[in-house]
Design goal:
The protein has three helices and 21 strands. It is mainly beta. The protein has two domains: 80 residues, Immunoglobulin-like; 161 residues, Glucose Permease (Domain IIA), CATH 2.70.70. It is globular, with a radius of gyration of 22 Å. The structure holds zinc ion (ZN).
């Protein structure tokens, strides 16, 4: 190898971020990222307009104002690499660590086989509901519609936590991707952050009276089991606005709000966004 190509190789290596010290220390986030670097967490970043961003080999959507969001899934890897290509051609990358979590896994064996399966009518409704939710989630607002931190939609007792899962007769059910907050029937429920109502449905099979609020950038809140909806599809809501009431519609065993937050389909932990329950 000639000296010139060796030097060129070193320059390319540096450009790709193979520089010493490119690995963040635990708890430190690169490039001014903010948020909880933990499974189920949401990270927020800001780059100069025109910068391209990748997480691993996946492109990250950057808004017109240079802001971007990263959602860490329930099973996010121990370490992730963020790569930035600035408008002037400079490339930077850093690897940072993600705190891993233990989830509440409940194994229940010996249940009688042949549990009630939904009727054809119910199945049709279940399919219609999931198609409507999927469609509403696809609404892509490129700009962030929210600023600052999220708030809890309602004050109450947390009866269901993010990530928990039940394994019935050895069969793993879908993990619980949200927070359940128990409160008295009729208690007002507030928007956790600014956004626009992209779905307001009166009678979904599992989730009853259901709301989806688009916070922009692919970040969506879902509220389920409400007794009343106080907003209509298309309405703009501000953080703290009352949007509905606590109930137990759909499949619920008591009055509570199920609050889920999804970023481009990745279920996040609302408790990490809203902090301690007041
Ligand atoms: Zn729930």
């Amino acid at each position: 190898m000639s000296r010139v190509s060796l030097r060129l190789g070193l320059i390319i290596l540096c450009l790709l971020g193979g520089l010493p010290g490119a690995v963040s220390h635990a708890g430190e986030l690169p490039f001014g990222l903010r948020g909880a670097a933990v499974q189920g967490g949401l990270l927020r970043g800001q780059v100069p307009v025109g910068t391209k961003v990748w997480l691993g080999d996946q492109p990250v959507r950057v808004g017109e104002n240079g802001s971007f969001l990263i959602g860490l899934s329930r099973r996010a890897q121990r370490s992730l690499t963020l790569r930035l290509l600035y408008p002037d051609g400079e490339v930077r990358q850093e690897t940072f660590s993600i705190t891993q979590r233990d989830y509440d896994i409940q194994r229940i064996d010996g249940l009688p086989a042949g549990q009630v399966s939904p009727s054809d009518t119910d199945l049709a409704r279940i399919r219609r509901d999931s198609a409507a939710i999927k469609k509403a989630r696809q609404v892509k607002t490129d700009t962030p519609l929210f600023e600052g931190d999220f708030i809890w939609p309602v004050t109450g007792i947390i009866t269901g936590v993010y990530g928990s899962q039940r394994i019935l007769n050895g069969e793993a059910r879908s993990p619980h991707l949200g927070a359940d907050i128990a409160a008295d029937e009729g208690t007002p429920i507030r928007a956790p952050a600014d956004g626009r109502v992209v779905l307001a449905d009166d009678e979904m099979f599992f989730t009853g009276k259901t709301l989806l609020i688009d916070h922009g950038h692919g970040l969506v809140s879902v509220y389920a089991h409400m007794s009343a909806l106080d907003v209509v599809e298309g309405a703009w809501v501000a953080k703290g606005d009352v949007v509905g009431r606590i109930g137990q519609t759909g499949r619920a065993t008591g009055p509570h709000l199920h609050w889920g937050v999804h970023l481009n389909g990745v279920g996040l932990d609302p408790a990490l966004l809203a902090g301690d329950m007041p």
